[in-house]
Input
Amino acid sequence: MLPSSSLPPGAADAAPSWLAALGPFGPALAGGVLIGLSTSLFLLLTGRIAGISGVLGGLLNPRAGDMGWRAAFVGGLVLAGAGAALFAPAALGAPLARAPIFIVLAGLLVGFGTRLGNGCTSGHGVCGISRGSPRSLASVLTFMATGILTATLLRLIGVPA
Amino acid sequence: MSRPLELVAAGFVGLLFGLGLLVAGMVQPANVVGFLDLFGDWKPALMGVMGGGIAVNAVGVLIMKRMGKPLLGATFHLPTRRDLDKRLLTGAALFGVGWAIGGFCPGPALVAVPSGRADALLFLLSMLGGMALFNVWERKAALDRPAPAPTLSPNPAAAQPEPGGGPA
Output
């Protein structure tokens, strides 16, 4: 469905041409740098870890005086998405060709798993690893392993991507 | 307790983070599935997201170590645990499975929702459901445990300093 054939091999789909011109890793690296800037800013300004599952989980577990910054952070993320929907819808890609039951199962696993394991790709992946946290390294190795295993399995049993 | 400047900072950081996810292609589930399909039609590009993010944030951590306290707050709220336990690894394992099935992790799901796309909305609601389910499960687990040892009950909101301030 996506015009991946016109992009360099390995490139992320539907990247704007000026980013694709940076090479297959260009958009991902540029995005990673922006993410690193934001997590650094958050740490130096507020002293907190920008872990999305933790920020979101705190909103579902309300504690007085701890809600405002969480809501503002989530609001910023949603605002970025609204801007993209209006001005750069290609950056949002297309839905997977998977039945809704897959999406529901995926959401439940991501929600429960990130709370049980105290973090996701942002808190453990970006923030934790750069702090040298052994827990974060173990988390990333684990979720990459089960992610690769699951993606492989789904392809082998013929679930479309 | 959140002061206005802290709210502005959090909102701006969320916006910048979302922009990074969009530029990186992380918000497109097909990219994530392609990235995790290591033995199939592998798309390695997303390695750059974590690489770039870790490199830049490592500089932030170096700067932090030279600061006594954050610019807008009283203390740094950093996790101090270094031990590996079953909860950490089980949680990460479940997250990985869900990430590969749906192609979304928590940040991209929030960014994708304003598009109004059904898959993004369905994923976000299910994810919030999973988090709520965890809260219920944890409360029940806490009741079932006769005397919870402090090291076995990692508080999800461990970002808050303990009253004593001792290392967790």
